[in-house]
Amino acid sequence: MLRWALVAMIAVLLSITVYMFVERFSDDPEPVVANISDTSVAAEAAVPGTAQPMPVEAPAAVRAPATPQPSTPTVEAAAATIFPPQATTGTSRPTSSFAAEAAATARIASYAHHPAPPDGFSLDVPIDCTLGQDCFIQQFVDIDPGPDALDFTCGPLSYQTHKGTDFRIRNLQALRDGVTVLAARNGRVRAIRDGMDDINIKKLPAGAVEGRECGNAVVIVHEDGWETQYCHMRKGSVIATRGQTVLAGDPLGMVGMSGSAEFPHLHLSVRKDGEVVDPYRGLSPVAACGGEYQTLWSAAAIDQVAYRPGAILDAGFLDRQLSFDEAIEGAAAPATVARDGQGLVVWYIIFGIRQGDEVSVSITGPDGNRVFDQTLPPHPKHQAQRFAYSGRRTPPEGFAPGLYRGEVRIVRDGALYDSRDVSVTLR
Questions:
Q1: pTM above 0.90, yes or no
Q2: What is the DSSP string of 202-255?
């Protein structure tokens, strides 16, 4: 009897251990964009002299839900040779949260970050890329306990119950090329998972990744009850092994899009005794949001991970209109295009665009003269992501051959906030 009692007790303990493993791995699903999305499609008007207008349709992965959505105003073309700017996808939070975000943001004029003390728990940058150039921190921990979502500055770069920091890479080509995930601190690997495909969650049936929202992942335990978790890694890339001792900066695998993810990124979660900690606020923040923080970021990392409330994620030239799926694929910015194509288009993806932002696009020809220059009206609302394009139709004789330069600019609160230069050679 004693032997059977011991067997039963061991079975119970094993079950509890497995449950804890699954619970820890799947405690932070990425957002289902259907809950926060607001997709606008601006159809192009017919242009005199052409047989048919060129239709614009949002791809299936970003198409607006059946319920009515507010539309994005179409900017009228100044002449028949101009493509009206096309807004083919935008993701935003529910309208009910905008007022709360605006009020909270108005209360916070600035914040200050102090790195973790040398003898305290600290984290290094967990990804091998240049932040602000080829990768970006797009979303932060949601510090609002209610129905709204606020990042640590009281800004809108979060979503409901988000429990980590998202380091985004530009596109799927960068995913394929490989961007390394790094251990943020010395520790021991407690758990790993690999083998899940890198697929946009919106293209999978409901419940397809239930219990595995973190995707391919690594969990590292540190001293004094601290733990870090690295989610959405690329299929087949995880090189860490269970029980392995790692040092800060050691490679764990590659950034991917596995699990519940809509774009390629690394989701970093930090926990202390099982409780989520925002690395930007530290263990005992003295303010609800904004103000002074003793962060968990090390002195070497703090400047690299500085808060940037939105940016131009990617941009490029193409000789025709395109879809968001093509842009995010990473092959829509060739170095050379035909001078007699459909047109000359500059496309761009912005994350964290805010109400009132003014976006402008210009194209300069090889002779130094502007061939296209347009500023859109102030943006009507906060959006997590916006993809759009604009440019000129090809004239009957074609564009002059040579190097063309494009610029996308964001003006925020009356000052230049961000810009991106692109170029293409027409042959």
A1: no
A2: GGS-TTTTTT-TT-EEEEEE-GGGEEEEEEEEPTT-----TT-EE-TT-EEEEB
